[in-house]
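Example 3.2
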Amino acid sequence: MSTPNQQEITYLKPDDILIPEERVTSQLDPEILDELRESIKEHGILEPLLVARVEGKYVLIDGLHRLVIAKELGMDKVPCVVREMREDELLITNLIVNRQRGKSNPAEEAKLVKLLVDEYNYSMNEVARKLGMSKSTVDRYYQIASRLDDQVMEMLRQGMLSVGCAYWISFLDDRSKQREIAKSAVEYGYTVEQCKEAVRLAMHPEEPPPPGGWTFDESGKPVRVPVKAFPCGREVDPSQVIYIPVEADLLDDLKILFSEYCKEFGIASGEEQGSAEGERSEAPETTGQPQEEEPKPKEEKARGGGDWWPF
C-alpha cells in the first residue's frame, strides 16, 4: 500500500475545490489556527489536501482549514491528493479521517449518519461497520440528528452540551421544552443522569422522583431528593447513604432490631419527630379520659424504577 507521500500530487485552484454542505471538520483551537496560518504563509502547504473527484467535480474531503487559509492568502494553487469516489464514499472518508485525528464534532457526525441512512439507504448496521462505530453510537446519533431542535444541536456542536444530554433531550416532542432543559443543562452543568431525570419529569410530571434522585427548582437548578434513613426515617444527605444487600426474609427482623436501637439511644424517627412537634403546638385539652389513638396511615412504598422510555 502506498503512503500519502508516495501518492501523486495534483495542484488545483482553491476556488475549483467544492466544500460539501454536510461534512465533519477537525476542531482547532484559535491559537493553533493562527500558528497554521503563519506556517502556511512562511512555508506554504506541506501536507496535501485530500480531494474526491465526483462526477468530474473536485470536492474536499479533508483540509478545510488549509483551503480557507490558502484563499485568504491569495494562493493560486494548492497541493492535493485526488481520489475517484462516489458522494457517499466521500462522506464516509471525511468522517473517518476526522475521527482518527480525535478532533471530530459529534453534531456534524450525527448529521452525516442521518444523511447516510436517509439519503443513501444505508442500514444502521452498515453505517456502524463502515464508520467503525458501535451500533449503539449510530442509533444515538441518528436519534439526535432526527429529533433535536436546531438551537440545541448548535449547543452540541459548540461543545456546550454533552452527547448524552443531547440524546435524552431529543426524546421530548416539544422543541421549546428541549431548548429550556438544554439551557438549564448548560447553565448548571447537568450530568447525563440529571438531563435524563429532567426529561423524565417533563414527560411524566405525575411521577415524583425517587429518594436520592433529582428534582429541579423554578430556575432549573438540580436539587437532590432527600433520603430517609432506615429505619428511623430521618432525612439524610444521599451522598452519605450506604447501601448493603439484604435477603428479603431478614428485612422484618432488621426493622425490629434497628427500631430497638433507635429507641435505646433516643433517636427519634421522622414520624415521631413530626408527631412530637404537633403535640406541642396543638395539644388537646385534658379531659381525664384516655385519648383514642388514631390509626397511622400506611407508609406509601417508594416508586419503583420502571422503564418509562418509549422504546
